[in-house]
């Protein structure tokens, strides 16, 4: 069993994902490397499109964020977002009593929002700490500026 398969089941159970999340495992697997560990798998909603006729499932790994939409009548699955964490900009989240709303700007410049309903306050704080580690912790390492070289002038 590879790293992704082992961690996917743990992340789905910890993220309060319904058993339907396991139906999406093959699509999630195609979007990530085998050695990329799944950190969070959760059902989510897009706040502006609550009655869009489907459910969304979010998976966060060490390197990627993947969101899949499941259309209602026939349970068709469609990839909504597949992005490397380094390519996401303006990542922010807001806590509420029932969950967390994640907002980010994707590579194509589209601002995305996802609401995760987590239920307990313990789960909310755990996911908030996870977001802080994955997004803010990585940004600090990735943005280290190159040292400036002093200009030298030669006179003859």
Description:
This protein is an alpha+beta fold. About 25% of the residues lie in helices and about 35% in strands. The protein has three helices and seven strands; from the N terminus they run ααβββββββα. The protein has helices spanning about 5-15, 25-30, 120-140; strands at about 40-45, 55-60, 65-70, 75-85, 90-95, 100-105, 110-115. A seven-stranded antiparallel beta sheet has the order 4-3-2-1-7-6-5, with helices on both faces. A hairpin with a 3-residue loop joins β5 (about 90-95) and β6 (about 100-105). The protein is globular.
Number of strands: 7
**Helix-strand string:** HHEEEEEEEH
Percent in strands:
25-35%
Distance between the termini: 69 Å
In which range does the helix fraction lie? 25-40%
Give the averaged pLDDT, no decimals.
Answer: 80
Rg, nearest Å: 19 Å
Strand order of the largest sheet: 4-3-2-1-7-6-5
Shape: globular
Spans where pLDDT lies below 50 across 5 or more residues: 139-156
Largest sheet: 7 strands, antiparallel
Please state the structural category. Answer: alpha+beta
Helical stretch count?
A: 3
Topology, please?
Blueprint lengths: L2 H12 L10 H7 L6 E8 L8 E8 L2 E8 L5 E8 L4 E7 L3 E7 L5 E7 L3 H22 L14
Antiparallel strand pairs: 1-2, 1-7, 2-3, 3-4, 5-6, 6-7
């Amino acid at each position: 069993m590879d790293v992704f398969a082992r961690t996917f089941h743990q992340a789905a159970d910890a993220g309060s994902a319904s058993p339907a999340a396991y139906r999406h495992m093959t699509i999630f697997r195609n979007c990530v490397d085998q050695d990329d560990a799944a950190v969070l798998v959760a059902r989510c909603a897009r706040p502006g499109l609550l009655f869009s006729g489907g459910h969304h499932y979010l998976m966060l790994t060490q390197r990627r964020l993947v969101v899949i939409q499941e259309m209602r009548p026939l349970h068709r699955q469609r990839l909504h977002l597949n992005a490397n964490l380094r390519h996401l900009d303006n990542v922010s989240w807001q806590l509420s009593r029932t969950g967390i709303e994640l907002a980010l700007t994707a590579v194509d410049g589209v601002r995305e929002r996802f609401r995760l309903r987590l239920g307990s306050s313990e789960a909310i704080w755990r996911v908030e700490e996870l977001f802080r580690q994955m997004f803010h912790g990585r940004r600090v390492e990735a943005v280290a500026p190159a040292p400036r070289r002093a200009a030298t002038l030669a006179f003859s």
